[in-house]
Specification:
Elements (H helix, E strand, L loop, with lengths): L1 E10 L2 E9 L6 E7 L4 H9 L9 E3 L6 H6 L3 E5 L4 H8 L10 E7 L2 E11 L11 E11 L5 E10 L8 H12 L1 H10 L13 H18 L5 H10 L1 H7 L5
Parallel strand pairs: 4-5
Antiparallel strand pairs: 1-2, 2-3, 5-9, 6-7, 7-8, 8-9
Helix pairs in contact: 7-8
């Protein structure tokens, strides 16, 4: 679950803000709702209510680390920041130095090298959040390939998944794939120039965002990893695009 403002749009003086549910990995958007500016929280549960969440893990950023949300989600991983200050203090106070490293990933891309280290602590009962049975500490180290500048960041998350339901490696993958939604937003902005679009008012910005989501999802399902290359391909071969949509008949 993540939200995005279509910055070139205008509704009541503000850009159109869309809350979306996207599948991990393929980045396909399966539900989307236009919400008021900074109005993601009340729209979270109604959007999920339309989906079958059986055997599904929901991931969301810190804005949605809300007690009410946690009570309605069967399985979740939620980031903890300042909006849950007591919980964050509790997580920071856990004996992380005594807890062994459970997963380490090394990624290279976009001109930087990133190393993530994950520790998992089982605390049940005891966490100040509904259904939370495990906490995670994720230390992220990014090195800029051009400047050599190093950035360090520590992120805490809570999850209702038990150790029997997900290994540390699986938890790390779920967290990493949640952050991949930023790549979807980047594609919409850069490849499809969403924020520069002159379609600005009424329901048109939301409709165009839906069409962009559909196009990206179909390209991913067709096996494309580079959406810019895929867009160029289908732009010059409309018959291939029609086949992708199964419109040949």
């Amino acid at each position: 679950m993540d939200g995005k403002t279509v910055r070139g749009s205008r509704t009541g003086g503000n850009g159109v803000h869309l809350l979306a549910a996207a599948l991990h990995g393929c980045q396909a958007v399966i539900a989307q709702r236009q919400v008021a500016a900074k109005g993601e929280i009340p729209a979270f549960t109604p959007l999920l209510a339309r989906l079958d969440l059986r055997n599904t893990v929901v991931t969301a950023d810190a804005m949605h680390t809300q007690h009410g949300h946690a009570k309605t989600i069967v399985a979740a991983i939620l980031v903890v920041k300042g909006n849950q200050e007591k919980l964050r203090r509790q997580l920071r106070g856990l004996p992380w130095r005594e807890i062994p490293l459970r997963d380490r990933t090394h990624r290279r891309g976009h001109g930087r090298v990133e190393v993530r280290r994950l520790k998992v602590c089982t605390v049940r009962p005891g966490l100040l959040f509904p259904h939370a049975v495990q906490a995670m500490e994720i230390k992220r180290r990014r090195t800029n390939g051009k400047t050599g500048k190093v950035e360090m960041k520590t992120v805490y998350t809570v999850t209702s998944l038990t150790p029997e339901q997900a290994t540390p490696a699986q938890l790390a993958q779920l967290v990493q794939e949640h952050w991949s939604v930023e790549a979807l937003q980047h594609v919409r902005d850069v490849t499809f120039a969403e924020d520069a679009s002159r379609v600005r008012t009424g329901t048109a910005p939301r409709s165009m965002a839906t069409l962009r989501n559909l196009a990206i999802g179909l390209m991913r399902q067709a096996g494309w990893t580079n959406i810019l290359a895929a867009a160029d391909h289908y732009r010059s071969r409309p018959d291939h695009a029609a086949a992708l949509l199964d419109l040949a008949a």
